[in-house]
Structures are given as structure tokens and as C-alpha cells.
Design goal:
single chain, 13 helices, binds flavin mononucleotide, alpha+beta, 4 strands, 278 residues
């Protein structure tokens, strides 16, 4: 396939685009359209110098009100990493990746500023959680894009939040700081693949939110995605409850994924860490 912007967009969304014919397929546009998660890595180490540069890039991300509410914990200790990996044996890439980081939402410095400057903080509400979580996510994604630009591959690990109390203790996270995700980083051992996204007819709106025919669009997406990469039978979720589906598309997978409670204790955890969530 010749890499033009329209062919890259078609590859990403499974739908021929009208846009892009005038754009040169060079630089970041191409890199972003071909972005992918990597879960297998070579043994090539990532030197500290490069990691520091990538962290500087990640921490250059936009920040809500310049509050800079993100922190990153670099986990180099093999025992600590093995401990985290042992909680999540289905994701061996956590221990195999040359580097592992934990990205945290960090509202602690905002509270400290109020204390240091002896000012009231009449803003104990859920917005504080949201702002910090968004900042941390932007820092993580900016780090990922920087890493990909120098040939590295990454895999975020939100599954660490299924062990959020143990992780917070292991990393000595103070109040007002919580992990949003771990991140595996390494040189990719395989090319990987571009994961097909929902059509923009579902995700992009003009002037007002409006979608007609959502069910049919999702159905068509399920089929197009399955035609490219079908989910093998052994990877179907919750077979004991729902049986083996003859056709197992994206929407069936997501519906099954959230048919059981996940991380129901998260609100209690956030409150215990100081977030009022009012
Ligand atoms: C916040 C976040 C958390 C994620 N958590 C995990 C995870 O715990 N384990 C994993 O293997 N992949 C994880 N991923 C990777 C997603 O599964 C992946 O991004 C998604 O399937 C889309 O694929 P793509 O990134 O190649 O486009 C996570 C991604 C994000 C953005």
C-alpha cells in the first residue's frame, strides 16, 4: 500500500475518507495515523538519557490552568516491578518491558500552594479529580508520542488500578495523588498493527451532537473490524455466562467487558486520598 494520508485514514477507520488528498504523508500526521500499542519488546535497553528526554517531552503537554497536576514514578527496581506484575499475570509485558513507569494525577501541589500561601480552598469538588486526571493523561500520551517518534513502542496499563491501594502503598503515593496508568516502554519486537477506530460518523459532530443510525453504524464497524482482525473464539469474554458467540464483534466484546462490576471501590479510594468528590 502506498502511504498517502487518505490511505492511512482509510486504514485507521475502515472507511474511505474524502479528506487528505492535499496533505503530504510525512512527519507527525503519518506517525499519528499509524500509531499503535506495542506489547512485545526487544531486549535493547532504554538509556537514562533518552528516558529523561522523553519525560521532558511528556511533561511539556498542555496543562489545565498551568496547574501541572501530573507526576511520574519510574520503576527500575526489579522486585517492585515483579510485585506489580504478579498482580496481573495476564499481562506479562509489565515485567518484560525494558522500562516501566506509573503516571499519576497529582493534586497535592495545588493544595500545598494554598497552604503555603495561606489561602482558602473552597473547591473541594469532583472537578479537582477531573483536572488532575486529564493532566496526567495528556502527559502520558505526549510521552507515548515522543517515544514513538524515536522508534519506541508503549503500552499503557490501566489494569494497575484494579490494585490501586496496593500500588499506592508500594509507590508511597501521598494524599491527593493517584495512578491513572502504568506504561510499558521498549523497542518493539514486532511491527504490530493499526487498530481500527469507530467511523467519524459516530464520533465527530457538526455544530450539534447528532447521530442517526447509531446501531447500524456500530454493526457495520463490527463487521469491518472483524473482516480485518477477527477476535479468536478463545479470546471471547465471559463464555460461561454468555456462551460462544457466532459473531463476536467489538460491541459484543465491550458489552461483555462491562457486564461485571469493575473497580467498584474507586470512589471510596479517592475519598480516602483526600478528594471530596462533591
Ligand atoms: C488509559 C489506557 C489504559 C490501557 N490499559 C491497558 C492495559 O491495562 N493492558 C493492556 O494490555 N493494554 C492497555 N491499553 C492499551 C489499549 O488496549 C489500546 O490502546 C487499545 O486496544 C487501542 O489500540 P491502539 O492503542 O493500538 O490503537 C490501555 C490504553 C489506554 C489509553
Amino acid at each position: 500500500m502506498t502511504k498517502t494520508i487518505p490511505t492511512l485514514i482509510e486504514n485507521r477507520f475502515g472507511v474511505q475518507p474524502e479528506a487528505g488528498a492535499e496533505q503530504a504523508s510525512v512527519g507527525q500526521l503519518t506517525t499519528l495515523l499509524e500509531r499503535r500499542t506495542h506489547r512485545q519488546y526487544t531486549e535493547q535497553p532504554i538509556e537514562d538519557d533518552l528516558l529523561d528526554v522523553l519525560l521532558a517531552c511528556g511533561l511539556s503537554a498542555s496543562s489545565k490552568s498551568d496547574l501541572q497536576q501530573a507526576s511520574v514514578v519510574i520503576i527500575d527496581d526489579v522486585v517492585t516491578r515483579a510485585e506489580i506484575g504478579s498482580w496481573i499475570p495476564t499481562m506479562p509485558w509489565i515485567v518484560q518491558a525494558p522500562r516501566f513507569l506509573v503516571f499519576c494525577a497529582d493534586h497535592s501541589r495545588t493544595r500545598l500552594a494554598a497552604k503555603l500561601r495561606k489561602k482558602p480552598f473552597p473547591n473541594d469538588n469532583v472537578d479537582q479529580f477531573m483536572n488532575a486526571a486529564v493532566d496526567a493523561a495528556l502527559v502520558m500520551q505526549t510521552f507515548i508520542l515522543a517515544a514513538e517518534s524515536v522508534g519506541l513502542g508503549c503500552c499503557p496499563i490501566s489494569e494497575v488500578r484494579s490494585h490501586i491501594e496496593a500500588l499506592s502503598e508500594l509507590l508511597a503515593l501521598p494524599d491527593y495523588v493517584f495512578p491513572i496508568a502504568g506504561l510499558c516502554v521498549g523497542y518493539p519486537a514486532r511491527a504490530g498493527y493499526v487498530s481500527m477506530r469507530l467511523p467519524q460518523a459516530l464520533t465527530v459532530h457538526r455544530e450539534r451532537y447528532s447521530v442517526t443510525d447509531q446501531a447500524n453504524l456500530i454493526d457495520a464497524y463490527d463487521r469491518a473490524r472483524d473482516a480485518r482482525f477477527s477476535i479468536p473464539e478463545q479470546s471471547q469474554r465471559e463464555i460461561d455466562r454468555f456462551g460462544v458467540a457466532e459473531f463476536y464483534g467489538w460491541s459484543e466484546d465491550k458489552a461483555r467487558q462491562y457486564s461485571t462490576p469493575h473497580r467498584a471501590g474507586f470512589l471510596a479510594y479517592l475519598k480516602a486520598r483526600g478528594f471530596a468528590m462533591e
